[in-house]
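Hi V.,

You were right to ask for the full record rather than a summary. Here it is.
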Amino acid sequence: YIEPLLRAGLKVHTTIPKIYLSKTEIENGKKILLNLGIPENSQVISVAPLSKWKNKEWSHFPEFFEIAVKPGRFFLILGDDFKRAEKFLPEKSYIRSFIKNVSGTLSLRDVFSLLYHSDLLISVDSGIYHAGEALGIPTIVFFGPTVPAFGFSPVKAKVLEVDIPCRPCHLHGGNFCKRGDHACLDSISPDEVLDAVEEMLNR
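Predicted structure:
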């Protein structure tokens, strides 16, 4: 997107996208967290498990939450479909008490304000991951049927991916796995993701 601007003679000051929030939006993010029952000074991890393209979705989020939840750490589920996001949550009520599904209940700017107050973002390859980077939030992103070389390469995010011969298989991700096993994402284990989380939080 930058090359046409350069060819037009426009000066480009940065190659890193930025999202700016007003003081009101930042304060509103704090209020949303408190209304969700998340105490101040809690560790907040935002999670964006949904994609328009089903092949981009990692199926092990329920197992991941089982091992990642702990007192003082809360997860926000972000996206555009509350009911569909529910399938990524674990069954145990104690674990779920640390997970707040706000998918489809907030404006886009409210989502940005919650990302601003997050210690970390875990996302599939979707728009929310780009928003997290544009807000300067430490980010972990899954790449499965797509690859960073398609032109949506992360700026600073930690990429989780596996090297298998059929990748990439679709420009946007697709909705059907020709192998039938979704190995490009499902071979990434919950333990690997938790290791990445702890690494990013301890930087």
